[in-house]
Amino acid sequence: MEIFDLSSGESGFSDDLNALVKAVHDGSSIPYRPHWGNALYYEYLIEKWPDMPIRICVHEGYFRDWLFCDEELLEYIEIKPDEITSAHRVQHGRDSLKRFVENNSLEEAPCMLFVRLTASSGQSISLILGLLPAGQAGMDLTIEEAFLGDDFEQKLIDSGWLDLDALEQVSDQWILDRWSRMR
Question: Alpha helix (H) ranges present in the chain?
């Protein structure tokens, strides 16, 4: 995983970035969509880091809400709702994951980038920034995680985000744990 090191003084957003670092260190709340986020992305990050290694990710809630549900399964197989088994759910879940991976591209799926931000005070934080597709507006920058420490992978997983490459390797139990059953 490549991490972008950003010093708050390098950009035209030093006051905002210093305030963000202070807020995380103080345990204060931070904005999900900071008012300066898109400007930072388009005016600074792209220019400074043109080949930024972003990772295409998807939130597990998408599968739970839209693909891992009995109603969706019944559109694909001809059985009665009371005949649905865990095996049906797992097979449909795997098929849905495969279709999702094959049909998604950078323009359609959220992307994450990993930043270590150092304030002018010398304090630093780690950020997982989301780049969410916003149609003709391009990408919308969000702060998915802001934390002390360096365990980006675990924070990504703990917050429910999965790297697109990892989707085909999830366990049967992972699918069943996120499945919405008919009532």
Answer: 14-26, 37-40, 46-48, 60-62, 70-74, 86-103, 152-158, 172-177
Closest CA to 156 of 21, 49, 23, 59: 59
Listed in sequence order, the residues at least 6 apart from 22 whose beta carbon sits closer than 8 Å to its beta carbon are 28, 119, 121, 123
- Distance set, CA 167 to CA 91, 132, 183 (Å): 14, 19, 27
Q: What is the C-alpha end-to-end distance of the chain, expressed in Å?
A: 42
CA dist 130 and 141 (Å) reads 6
Mean pLDDT for the stretch of residues 44-67? 83
Tell me the domain boundaries of the chain: 1-183
Q: Which has the closest alpha carbon to 145: 130, 166, 132, 167?
A: 130
Enter the DSSP assignment of 69.
B
**Residue 149 falls in which region: left (phi positive, over 0), alpha (psi -120 to 50) or beta:** left
- Whole-model pTM above 0.85? no
pLDDT band at 123 (very low <50, low <70, confident <90, very high): very high
145-177 per-position pLDDT tens digit? 999 999 998 999 899 998 888 888 899 999 999
DSSP 8-state secondary structure symbol assigned to residue 68: S
Cα angle 177, 182, 183; round to 5: 110
